[in-house]
Amino acid sequence: MAELDREGRIWYPTSKTRRIYLKRYLDEQPGVPVGNVWTDINPLNSQARERVGFPTQKPLALLDRIIRASSDEGDTILDPFCGCATALVAAERLNRKWVGIDIAPLAVKLVKQRLRDDMGLFYEVVARTDIPQRTDQGVLPDYRTHKHHLYGQQQGDCRGCGEHFPFKNLTVDHVVPQSKGGTDHIDNLQLLCGWCNSTKGDGTWEEFKVKMAANGYL
Question: How many other C-beta atoms lie within 10 A of the C-beta of residue 91?
Fold first, then answer.
């Protein structure tokens, strides 16, 4: 007790009728493990400074906790739908390596901008705009052979305008154009009517949606 007193760890009350106490500091306590129900992190409201415009954006504090709990410094964090870059910003702050993937070209621009805003003007983000080709499926059949499957999957509706068409009036289209790295895998195929297919052309799906909105379809 004398040693604690010399270290200034004893608190003496002003009243003689009260007992003395040992000073304990928060950073010396083990704390209580976080459970699986988190109510201390508030969702982002429309006025939050973190907001970048994505409707599904999560609070940075939430991704910070998840990454801290599931990785160590130097580990690699993968976010296959990186969107507004929240996970990537949290990973960078916590000294983790990271890889972000998103199909929207806007996401690449947003990732670069948000990380530069957070880490400094000269922070460099290496971004690939080409789509790597799959090498685990051998030679794929002609993509047109998927038309019957796609017709049933879409229930005969055009993926663009949403109108229902007979089988013969729909054509197989690449969601990501072949000229931009899109593959013939069925996950990259859809059925469009003739008008939507010609409107989309070799452009991206995002460009097509802009054209559709201009024509009053979206």
Answer: 24
